[in-house]
């Protein structure tokens, strides 16, 4: 019988196992700072005791990527708090609306935001990170809390996804998804930490004994040059950007991408550069990545990690049997029950997919974006949109389904681009089946 570990036990084990390896790297006043695994554990434990003294239960974490963000998020969870992960780029009105919806009692933020948010402080209690007083010698280790992160909104509207610390601990302890990063390697992580991929990558990398290079998607050029990482965790648009701008450091040998559909053209660019590519798939509801596609199956086909099984309904919707998943959508019990069977641990994703005889799946797009033609053929809008956006002269393009037919809408780069677009569209239609033109 498997013995479940608490999140505290999982983190403490890392500190004991990788004592000689830097856990985090970041820059402070132009100088690289290194944080060891034992120091990280000490910092989290100190903050945990401090947060245990705060009576408020529901705390919103509203700050940019930083070592302090990671320590505070972990400490709040270990102190039994309900931690709401908020996008640092939210405007005041949107922030207050989300805080009200999730019943936030206090915002925890960085000092710069705190100092510049005087008007906001009159509307909601705020406390800067680093100002927490600790008078406790010890704090309970068995009252761990939950996090709430938000979906991207691809399922029509963003939802608050509730994940328990127990489930997070199990996901970290048992997670076996294949992605790069070995003990002692520098792993660049510029994904926003409030998003499920950024948040769970932190712990998956630590489990491997990697050194997390804390990044920000605004400073890709500078950070890649400074850190010289061996591997990087990106979204496809970031990878495309560093290829186009020639930002690949000589040290980089592998990249994992997630959070978006991986196009074959991008995989081919990686191969030309000698980069090992791992195409990850997962959702907030599944605690991030649950499968990976690599070169052997053409990157598009996803192999489920151990304990995960894919199924596809007759209408093409992907379902997943999961060992770890969300508890619920916050304040949305009907939406929760519509997609999650808590007894069988089956989750319906809303993604359209194909499945092969080995149990691998190919993600085709969102079910709601699937266009059914008069002939009954299904067109996945995301795939077609991607093809249209690659045509010469196109600034932006999309395909629509109108009265059982396909209609393409283009925004040309310049007035003179119209002829280029028509020429490219004619060639694209020549290669397609008649029903998909």
Major beta sheet, specifics?
A: 14 strands, mixed
The helix tally amounts to 14
Give the helix level as a range of percent. Answer: 25-40%
Shape: globular
Radius of gyration, CA atoms, in whole angstroms: 23 Å
Mean pLDDT: 86
Low-pLDDT runs of 5+ residues are none
Strand % is: 25-35%
**Sheet/helix structural class:** alpha/beta
Oligomer kind:
single chain
Q: How many extended strands? A: 25
Head-to-tail CA distance between termini: 56 Å
What would you say this structure looks like, in words?
- 31% of the residues lie in helices and 29% in strands.
- The chain has helices spanning 7-17, 37-51, 67-78, 92-101, 111-116, 118-121, 165-174, 196-207, 220-227, 236-244, 264-272, 333-339, 381-389, 417-431; strands at residues 22-28, 31-36, 58-62, 82-86, 106-109, 126-128, 146-150, 160-164, 186-189, 211-214, 231-234, 254-257, 276-283, 288-293, 301-304, 309-312, 317-321, 328-329, 340-341, 346-355, 361-366, 370-372, 378-380, 394-402, 405-412.
- The strands form four sheets. Strands 1, 2, 9, 10, 11, 12, 13, 14, 15, 16, 17, 19, 20 and 21 form a 14-stranded mixed β-sheet that branches. The protein has a seven-stranded mixed β-sheet with strand order 6-5-3-4-7-8-18, sandwiched between helices. The chain has a two-stranded antiparallel ribbon with strand order 22-23.
- Helix 3 links the parallel strand 3 (58-62) and strand 4.
- The termini are far apart.
- The mean pLDDT is 86.
């Amino acid at each position: 019988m498997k013995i479940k570990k608490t999140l505290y036990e999982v983190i403490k084990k890392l500190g004991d196992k990788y004592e000689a390896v830097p856990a985090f790297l970041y820059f402070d006043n132009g100088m690289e700072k290194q944080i060891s695994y034992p120091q990280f554990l000490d910092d989290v434990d100190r903050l945990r005791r401090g947060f245990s003294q705060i009576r408020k239960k529901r705390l919103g974490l509203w700050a940019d990527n930083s070592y302090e963000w990671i320590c505070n998020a972990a400490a709040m969870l270990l102190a039994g708090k309900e931690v709401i992960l908020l996008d640092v780029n939210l405007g005041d009105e949107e922030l207050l609306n989300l805080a009200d919806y999730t019943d936030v009692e206090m915002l925890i933020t960085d000092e710069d935001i705190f100092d510049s948010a005087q008007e906001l402080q009159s509307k909601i209690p705020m406390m800067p990170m680093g100002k927490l007083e600790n008078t406790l010698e010890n704090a309970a280790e068995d009252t761990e809390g939950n996090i709430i992160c938000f979906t991207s909104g691809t399922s029509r509207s963003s939802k608050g996804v509730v994940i328990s610390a127990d489930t997070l601990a199990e996901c970290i302890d048992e997670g076996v998804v294949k992605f790069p990063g070995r003990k002692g390697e520098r792993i660049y992580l510029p994904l926003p930490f409030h998003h499920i991929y950024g948040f769970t990558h932190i712990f998956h990398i630590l489990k491997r004994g990697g050194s997390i290079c804390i990044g920000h998607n605004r400073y890709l050029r500078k950070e890649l040059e400074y850190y010289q990482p061996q591997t990087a965790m990106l979204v496809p648009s970031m990878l495309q950007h560093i290829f186009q701008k020639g930002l690949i450091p000589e040290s980089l040998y592998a990249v994992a991408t997630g959070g978006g559909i991986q196009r074959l053209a991008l995989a081919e660019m990686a191969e030309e550069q000698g980069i090992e590519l791992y195409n990850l798939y997962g959702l907030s509801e599944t605690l991030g990545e649950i499968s990976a596609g690599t070169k052997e199956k053409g990157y598009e086909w996803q192999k489920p990690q151990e304990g995960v099984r894919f199924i596809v309904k007759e209408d093409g919707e992907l379902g997943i049997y999961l060992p770890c998943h969300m508890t619920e959508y916050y304040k949305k019990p009907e939406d929760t029950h519509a997609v999650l069977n808590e007894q069988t641990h089956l989750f319906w994703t809303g993604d359209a997919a194909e499945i092969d005889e080995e149990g691998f799946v190919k993600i085709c797009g969102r079910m709601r974006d699937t266009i059914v033609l008069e002939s009954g053929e299904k067109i996945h809008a995301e795939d077609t949109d991607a093809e249209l956006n690659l045509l010469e002269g196109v600034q932006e393009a999309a395909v629509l389904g109108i009265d059982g037919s396909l209609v393409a809408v283009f925004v040309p780069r310049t007035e003179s681009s119209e002829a280029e677009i028509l020429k490219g569209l004619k060639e694209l239609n020549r290669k397609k089946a008649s029903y998909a033109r």
